[in-house]
Structure formats: C-alpha cells, structure tokens
Specification:
- This protein has one domain (3-260): Spore Coat Polysaccharide Biosynthesis Protein SpsA, Chain A, CATH 3.90.550.10.
- Helix content is 31%, strand content 25%.
- It has helices at 34-44, 58-66, 85-92, 94-97, 121-130, 196-206, 227-241, 249-260; strands at 3-7, 28-29, 32-33, 49-54, 74-79, 102-107, 112-113, 134-139, 150-154, 157-162, 171-182, 211-215, 220-221.
- The strands form three sheets. Strands 1, 4, 5, 6, 8, 9, 10, 11 and 12 form a nine-stranded mixed beta sheet that branches. Strands 2-3 form a two-stranded antiparallel ribbon. Strands 7-13 form a two-stranded antiparallel ribbon.
- β2 (28-29) and β3 form a beta hairpin.
- α3 (85-92) packs across α6.
- The longest helix is centred in the last third of the chain and has 15 residues, at 227-241.
- It starts with a strand and ends with a helix.
Length: 261
C-alpha cells in the first residue's frame, strides 16, 4: 500500500516571528494549517497512511493534524530530538515507509495549487512506469538561481542540484516540494543527518541511478518563506477563492470543503 510523508521538522527561521511559537506547517492559511494542503494531495493518490516528522514546536504540528477531520487517513509522527535534515528525517521513518514499494514525500512548508480536475497521479504513474529511484515534481520560477537552487535536467533525467549547471546542455527546473521515491532509495542514505538532494540522490546519480523530473502544466507554487510572502500568499488564496473564473478555484474549494466542512 502506497504511503506518504510530510517533512515538518524545519525551524522556519526566515518566517520569524510567525514561527517563534508555532511550526511553519502548522500556520493557518484560510483557516487551514499549511500541511493540510499536502494531506489533501496525498489522500487524492489513495494514500491512507502518512508519517510527519517534527522537531521545532512539535506539539503545534500534532495539534494542527488532530484538529482536522482525518476520516480514513491515519497520521503518525516521528519526533527528532536533533534535527536530521530532509534525508535524515526520511531515513528515521524508513521502517514505516519501506513497507511500500513506492512512497511520496511532500515538504510540509510547501504550498501548491493544481488546476481544476488535476491530481498528482500523473507524477506517480510516470515514476512507476520509468522505474526511477526518485521522481521530482518540477516547474519554472522567475527567481530560480537568484534565490533558489535548481534541479538540473537533461531530457527526462536529473543530473544534479544547486545553482551551477553540471552540463552546458542541462536545463534548470524549480523543485515544487513533492517527490515520489522507490524503496531502493534506502540503499543510498548515509549515517546521521543528511540532505535528501545533495547527500542521497546526487551520490546515487553519480553511481548510475536514475532520478527523474516531471513538469505538470499550470501548477501554482506560492512562496511562503517570509512574513511578507506568507501574507501575500494568503491574499492570493483569498482572491482565488472569490474568483470562479480562476483555474485553481475548484481545487481550492475542494481542499477547504474536505477539511472545514
């Protein structure tokens, strides 16, 4: 059975003072904790079991989850006394995740909206058909390389990460915070804290493993990293909610109805 994970252990330092007493994934956007948006997409994939790692203000993440009508969703938590990074957090949850041949990991501080009638199923199906070690959901961003590192892609395969192109032919893509993994990825984790990109996937690629990247059309990624950006994202969501002509209107309403009705 497919399983999911939401990474929610980060300190949210750029978002202070909003994150001084609450973890970023627990902060409300349209009266929903940020992590609820990712729970919705995981549930759409048929995932019924999700693990969430915590570190900073862990009780606020747990309270945010228990405040939601989970229905058939089963959510458990993996507390990190010392923050383990994106790789280390997944490694700590391996006993939960490796019972599934594939699993989906979302960044808990990430916010995307899909156009109406769309889901993340094409990402999952693409990953499974290619038998990649991992497959990232990617897009484009006007400030890519200025503020954000890139996923560097040649054809359909990732060849590196960061702000420097590993090849003149490589194309820079923006990581949208959702990755499908194959269980075999656990063979490439180092001991201790690690980054899933630079300490796990990049070395795996150098050893001949294949990692993919799939752009899906018209995905809206909202920046929420600073108080100003968070406020702007809130305003943008309100505008979408009130605009029936927006291609994201129905998706946003589905998310709100799922957890607030």
């Amino acid at each position: 059975m497919l399983k999911g994970m939401i990474l929610a252990a980060g300190l949210g330092q750029r978002l202070r003072p909003l994150t001084e007493k609450k973890a970023k994934p627990a902060l409300p956007l349209l009266n929903l904790p940020l992590l609820a948006y990712n729970l919705f997409y995981l549930e759409q994939l048929g995932i019924q079991e999700v693990i969430i790692n915590t570190h900073h203000c862990p009780h606020t993440v747990e309270e945010a989850v228990t405040s939601l009508p989970l229905r058939s969703l089963k959510v458990c938590f993996s507390y990190e006394d010392t923050i383990l990074g994106t790789g280390g957090g997944i490694w700590k949850a391996k006993d939960f995740l490796k019972s599934s041949s594939h699993f989906v990991v979302c960044n808990g501080d990430n916010l995307i909206l899909l156009p109406e009638q769309r889901t993340l199923k094409p990402l999952l199906e693409y990953h499974q058909s290619k038998n990649f070690l991992a497959t990232h959901l990617v897009g484009q961003h006007k400030d890519l390389l200025k503020y954000y590192g890139a996923v560097w892609v040649e054809g359909e395969r990732v060849i590196g990460y960061g702000k420097t192109p590993p090849s003149p032919r490589s194309q820079a893509c923006h990581l949208l915070g959702v990755t499908v993994f194959s269980r075999a990825v656990f063979e490439f984790f180092p001991e201790g804290p690690s980054s899933i990109l630079t300490d796990v996937l990049a070395p795996a690629i150098s050893k001949g493993q294949q990692v993919g990247a799939l752009p899906l059309p018209d995905i809206l990624w909202l920046e929420t990293g600073t108080p100003e950006a968070f406020k702007a994202a809130q305003k943008q969501l309100l505008n979408i909610k009130e605009d029936p002509g927006s291609i994201y209107h129905s998706t946003l309403n589905q998310i709100l109805e799922r957890f607030l009705s």
